[in-house]
Amino acid sequence: MIAVGEETHFKKSLVDARIKIIKELVTEHQIDIIAIEGSINVSHIINEYVSGQTQSIIFHEVLPGLNEPYLLQGAGLYDCEQMIEFIEWLREFNSKRKNKITFAGFDFQNFSVPIDSLQKYSNGDIEINYKLSSIQTTLRKSILSILDSGINVIATRNWLETFRSARKDLKYVERQIFSDENAIFFDELKQFTNLWDAPSFPRDSLMFENLKKISRNENVIVLAANYHLENDPLFKGPKKMGTFLREYFNENYLAIGLKEDQNSAIRLKNPKIVDDKKLDIVIFVSQGEKCNRIYRK
């Protein structure tokens, strides 16, 4: 497992450098899976395209959905021109291979796509469709309220109660229509609605469990923020995904972090002898502008 991180999301120099590294790894080595810090279900839509199962994709609708809270707050993550070019490149690469590279998400940052998908399993049941619509409206208002009231709103009782309400409605829907076929939609929704009022805020541990299921003892490239990839057992907050990955994969986990610096250089770090051992390799790239966003039409 090779993880390629970035110090800050949506910076052109970091995105360009990361894509260059990924292409090199994919071209020169046997890579089975590219896993990203993005929605499980939206990544599945992208995978159907890069694997040739579908013939077209509407990028300005799909890419922003990889992180719906960012989309609602007007922040960018993967909805950029470079990501479109990379996906097209991966599709072309896969077209020449019998064994396709899988594009997968291990984060749970979209609720609209799984909710819309679950409505197809309701068989027109009014109560189920009402509950699903209520969940979507509740979650959307909760995320948007961060813009109005600031990040501290997530610690208020009323804000947390909205997620408990959504979770209650989701449990009702799950009892009515759950099946192996639609389990992927429930998985992302349950993780999203369970996250916010958990005392330990277990996002990294949940992403680790998702990534562990994805890996299946295959060769995986992991894309996430440097923070999540760091092996940092002394960190005072919730345990980071990178710490879980180091414990689980041992020497089979390599973490590469990308950072901005005026003077580009490569600094190799040996975790056994260097005090700062959170990342195995740190690559410094020149500082640059933010990426050019693509917008929903």
TrEMBL record:
Enzyme type, top EC level: hydrolase
A Gene Ontology molecular function term of the record: hydrolase activity
Top-level taxonomic group: Bacteria
Phylogenetic lineage: Bacteria, Pseudomonadati, Bacteroidota, Sphingobacteriia, Sphingobacteriales
Gene source species: Sphingobacterium populi
Record flagged with keyword Hydrolase: yes
Keywords annotated in UniProt: Hydrolase
Protein name as annotated: Erythromycin esterase family protein
InterPro entries xrefs: Emycin_Estase, Hydrolase/PRTase-associated
One Pfam family matching this protein: Erythro_esteras
EC number: 3.1.1.-
